[in-house]
Specification:
This protein is mostly helical. 64% of the residues lie in helices and 4% in strands.
Length: 414
């Protein structure tokens, strides 16, 4: 019986316009973001530019972060991303003076006139070629003698608070300021990690998962809501409630069908970047993991699909409305834009949409693998619990003990 229900649900999903809309969005996302995938070539000695890397040197972090603060203080406006969106901050006199006090304690440079002079002198030196830095606007300032890194962090947290959060001075973003040029040896180490430890396909499968999981953090809820409301719109609820199929079989088959039908297009799309990786690897003599995209789809993307679909089902069965779209929309927005500070990997936390927006950084991924695995397992367990709750609600409705509808003002009635 379960098998027949599952096949029927898959067919109904295939006949859903919402489902094909989701597939088209995934295809568009892939083609617009990584459709023209270029495999990283082996670095050549003497080529000059090997890119940049984040420095973990505390002195570099202090100099670059303080340079950024002086520059923004000098031009009297600051760039922040409080919830992932750009915001230009202009401080009032009181807050501006507090930033000036932070600069004085951290660098010994006192007053706006001195700050303006320091910034001007630095740019003059930059233009005259007296100093080699990563970027023309990546100013560096020596910290005040005796300033400890702990006190530096406290001052930067204070500055971030004054600016309203999301600035380059917060804990998650300070390391982004310390970008230094890579040497040939650095570039070769990254290439060896990608081709040997990641076996090429692993790194690009992570990048693929990073892009796919963004939209799959919201799209499945539309399919779940549509499917759960379809019987109600067609007037089929009473008929379904009287059938002999168990509530567990009906909900489980419906849920599993949605999951499978959402995973299939992801796997089909992944064949394109996989083929490019295999073609490059064959020419370069690199050993690859043919199943890398399957592994990352199951381990990285599937938990997000599961929890989003489960949220859609439980809220729809509970309220007989599309409330789940609003709930999931808020969660997705906070997850995507609230975690936009560092998308290069390593800061996975408990985010619904874990990011690793590069095929590199294998060591960062490896060091934080337990954190990511815990994240994914948590969402799988949460999805199972929500699905069981959906079964319970559905079962009570079939027995006539818990049939609820949500009216226009949000009042529940039996």
């Amino acid at each position: 019986m379960f098998g027949k229900l599952f096949i029927k649900e898959c067919r109904q999903t295939l006949g859903s316009l919402v489902y094909w809309f989701i597939v088209l969005v995934l295809i568009f996302n892939f083609t617009s973001q990584i459709g023209d995938l270029k495999i990283m070539p082996e670095p050549k000695k003497g080529q000059g530019d090997y890119g940049y890397k984040k420095s973990k040197d505390k002195d570099v972090i202090m100099r670059t972060t303080l340079g950024k603060l002086l520059e923004e203080y000098s031009r009297k406006n600051y760039t922040t991303y409080p919830i992932g969106f750009y915001k230009n901050v202009i401080l009032d006199k009181g807050k501006d003076e507090k930033i000036g006090e932070i600069i004085e304690e951290a660098t010994g440079i006192s007053g706006r006139a001195e700050v303006d002079r320091a910034v001007s002198d630095w740019y003059d030196a930059q233009q005259n070629g007296n100093r080699t830095l990563v970027k023309v606007n990546n100013m560096e300032v020596e910290p005040r003698e005796g300033l400890t890194y702990k006190r530096f962090e406290e001052l930067m947290e204070e500055a971030d608070g004054i600016l309203g959060g999301g600035s380059d001075y917060g804990e998650d973003c300070r390391g982004q300021n310390a970008m230094v040029p890579m040497t040939y040896e650095d570039a070769m180490e990254e290439y060896r990690e990608l081709t040997q430890k990641d076996r090429l396909t692993g790194g690009y499968a992570r990048l693929f998962s990073d892009y796919m999981v963004i939209f799959l953090g919201i799209l499945p809820v539309f399919l779940a809501v549509t499917r759960c409301l379809r019987d109600k719109r067609a007037g089929m609820q009473d008929l379904i409630y009287t059938r002999n199929c168990s509530s567990a079989s009906i909900i489980a088959s419906r849920y599993l069908a949605m999951i499978v039908m959402l995973v299939i297009p992801v796997l089909v799309i992944s064949v394109i970047p996989l083929s490019k990786c295999l073609k490059y690897a064959e020419a370069a003599g690199i050993s690859t993991d043919v199943f890398a995209y399957v592994k990352y789809t199951i381990g990285w993307i599937l938990p997000t699909i599961m929890i989003v679909s489960a949220v859609g089902m439980v809220f729809t069965e509970l309220t007989d409305t599309a409330l789940a779209v609003l709930v999931q929309g808020v969660w997705w927005f906070v997850s995507v834009f609230g975690g936009a500070g560092d998308i290069g990997g390593g800061v996975y936390g408990w985010n619904l949409v874990p990011r690793h927006n590069t095929e590199l950084n294998w060591s960062v991924y490896h060091e934080n693998f337990f954190q990511l695995a815990s994240n994914r397992i948590l969402y799988v367990l949460a999805a199972v619990i929500l699905t069981l709750m959906t079964v319970l609600i559905y079962s009570q409705k079939r027995k006539g003990r818990y049939r609820m509808a949500w009216n226009g003002i949000g009042r529940l009635k039996k």
